[in-house]
Design goal:
This is GAF domain-containing protein. It comes from Neorhodopirellula pilleata. It is a single chain. With 306 residues, this protein is mostly beta strands. The protein has 3 domains: 100 residues, Beta-Lactamase (2-Layer Sandwich), CATH 3.30.450; 104 residues, Beta-Lactamase; 98 residues, 2-Layer Sandwich (Beta-Lactamase), CATH 3.30.450. Helices cover 15% and strands 39% of the residues. It has 6 helices and 18 strands. The strands form 3 sheets. Strands 1, 2, 3, 4, 5 and 6 form a 6-stranded antiparallel β-sheet that branches. Strands 9-8-7-12-11-10 form a 6-stranded antiparallel β-sheet. The protein has a 6-stranded antiparallel β-sheet with strand order 15-14-13-18-17-16. The chain is globular and about 45 Å long.
């Protein structure tokens, strides 16, 4: 039995399958708040506690295919650090095949630094039936700054690659094209040091999210600038141009500055993030926000819109 290193309070927020589109690669999403010490509280996500404990014990992202809810094929648990301490664990569960979706296509990966050189290798992953892409990935190494995992390491910020088959920075593009993979987001796991990059790769047929955004904090004003994005099956007016700036007091940024943990939301104001509600339709029904910190200072956010 793995003993908890921290206390897991009741999850700060959670989504249900009713708030995730039926063609989504994910079956469910949960965010666990992590306190300093003690015991964990049991809840409806009890099946994922083993992988949450593994992520707390290792300090990095963990992937599993065992001890999961009946509708889940796999799960990835992603720690969020603030001031060199894990304050949240984000758990994403992938969907099993059913009468609606046969063989959902998507990828969970964990890339971590290895050896004396500044490069990362695949630590673990879930690929479903995509054995060829898995085989290619298992032999690849990325230097710091190269490829999606290397860029995440270099920038200490989430990075999005869209149109993977034609993206010059996505070095496994040929495999992505063959398996209809479209968008990837790399998520840094870092306290005082870089632990790993969690990579989520989304397909055309079963997208992980209908929107992915990275917002960076402007140091002079503390406002947020959209630095990277990808959208799928959202209204034409929902997409924001790169360089859009939202005031730090706008939703969801004001709540993130207060709570300083990962969160999920179905609040329409937080999902709009500065958009005109009369134009941004059809929009997402829920979202996940993952913050990144330099010490105690909030530096950027990754947003997944469902």
């Amino acid at each position: 039995m793995i003993l908890p290193l921290h206390r897991i309070d009741s999850w700060s927020s959670s989504l249900t399958t009713s708030s995730i589109p039926t063609n989504c690669y994910l079956s469910d999403v949960a965010v666990f708040d992590v306190e300093a010490d003690g015991h964990f509280a049991h809840n409806r996500f009890g099946e994922v506690l083993p992988v949450v404990h593994r992520a707390l014990a290792s300090g990095t992202a963990e992937v599993t295919t065992s001890q999961l809810p009946l509708d889940a094929a796999s799960a990835i648990a992603i720690p969020v650090y603030r001031d060199n301490r894990i304050v949240s664990i984000v758990v994403l569960l992938s969907r099993k095949s059913d009468e609606t979706i046969q063989d959902p296509i998507g990828v969970f990966e964990v890339w971590e630094p290895i050896g004396p050189y500044e490069e990362v290798a695949l630590k673990d992953g879930y690929y479903g039936a995509m054995e060829r892409f898995h085989n290619v990935s298992s032999f690849v190494r990325f230097e710091k700054g190269n490829g999606l995992p290397g860029q995440v390491w270099d920038r200490r910020c989430a990075v999005i690659h869209d149109d993977l088959a034609n993206h010059t920075g996505f070095l496994r593009a040929a495999g992505a094209s063959a398996d209809l993979l479209r968008t990837a987001i790399g998520i840094p796991i870092a306290g005082d040091r870089f632990h790993a990059a969690a990579v989520l790769i989304s397909s055309v047929s079963t997208p992980i999210a209908r929107g992915m955004e990275v917002w960076s904090v402007l140091p002079d004003s503390n406002d947020f600038e959209l630095t990277s994005s990808a959208y799928y099956q959202l209204g034409d007016d929902y997409a924001l141009p790169i360089g859009t700036v939202c005031h730090c007091d706008a939703a969801p940024f004001v709540r993130m500055r207060t709570e300083k943990r990962a969160m999920v939301t179905d609040d329409p104001n937080e999902l709009l993030a500065g958009r005109d509600p009369r134009l941004a339709l059809p929009g997402p029904t829920s979202g996940l926000v993952i913050p990144f910190f330099d010490g105690v200072t909030l530096t950027s956010l990754a947003v997944l819109l469902f």
